[in-house]
What we know:
The complex is a heterodimer.
Chain A: E1 4-7, E2 10-14, E3 19-25, E4 29-37, E5 43-50, E6 55-58, E7 61-66, E8 71-76, E9 85-93, E10 100-101, E11 105-110
Parallel strand pairs in A: 2-11
Antiparallel strand pairs in A: 1-3, 3-8, 4-5, 4-9, 6-7, 7-8, 9-10, 9-11
Chain B: E1 5-7, E2 10-13, E3 19-24, E4 31-38, E5 42-50, E6 53-57, E7 64-68, E8 74-78, E9 87-94, E10 102-103, E11 107-111
Parallel strand pairs in B: 2-11
Antiparallel strand pairs in B: 1-3, 3-8, 4-5, 4-9, 5-6, 7-8, 9-10, 9-11
Amino acid sequence: xxxxxxxxxxxxxxxxxxxxxxxxxxxxxxxxxxxxxxxxxxxxxxxxxxxxxxxxxxxxxxxxxxxxxxxxxxxxxxxxxxxxxxxxxxxxxxxxxxxxxxxxxxxxxxx
Amino acid sequence: xxxxxxxxxxxxxxxxxxxxxxxxxxxxxxxxxxxxxxxxxxxxxxxxxxxxxxxxxxxxxxxxxxxxxxxxxxxxxxxxxxxxxxxxxxxxxxxxxxxxxxxxxxxxxxxx
Lengths: 111, 112
């Protein structure tokens, strides 16, 4: 079964707006990672947040992690057309290196 | 520095044949993971190697196998290909496996 599930499955917003996507997972983890994928190409690592961190920023990205709820959110501020992509969260059960990806959120940013 | 290189980029095979895909990780990276991506199943974990040892394995049949060489390069093999094996196969490397992974562009396999 999927370790991570993202919602919404799809999101369409106007350029300049913020985009928020959520991820839920099932087991205890050491860290949670977010990736972006453009149109069937390889994935690009965006940000990693450790289980003892609650929030992390990287440029226009803000990630939060709530280990009590086993959930994370990714916020992209001031979105651009170039942010159009699928976004995935990935987690591995503590003690393993088996990173499982969620089903992804397809983000479309309209110019 | 060079990224993760996967070869070939595209491959067309016939049912029943076997195929070998190659992955060269970023220099110094010792952990290599493989994923299968399809529209219906999404990204499915195949296996992860570290220093030539398979540390983790996904829920795929024994037709799917892999290995890692002493220079960290990795190969995966699929025997007796089925139509359902058509997918994008992605390889990713990491220093030790707990940091973010760098992905290759993938090998798109089509089984006819």
